[in-house]
Amino acid sequence: xxxxxxxxxxxxxxxxxxxxxxxxxxxxxxxxxxxxxxxxxxxxxxxxxxxxxxxxxxxxxxxxxxxxxxxxxxxxxxx
Length: 79
What we know:
Elements: E1 4-8, E2 14-15, E3 19-21, E4 30-32, E5 35-36, E6 38-43, E7 46-50, E8 53-54, H1 73-77
Antiparallel strand pairs: 1-6, 2-5, 3-4, 6-7, 7-8
């Protein structure tokens, strides 16, 4: 079974102030917020963050719920 895991040093846990980031399409704004005290984040057995720094690994994948079957183009044209 898969599991994602955050290793947290509760004695050091602290949130920093939110900051704006303008990295969305068309210069859209979003807020980012860093935290102290996160020792590591492990996804599918691979460390992705260590001491707040991105390790560059991207082992996870998007998980979606059930989706309707796609409609075929020929079936859509006859409706």
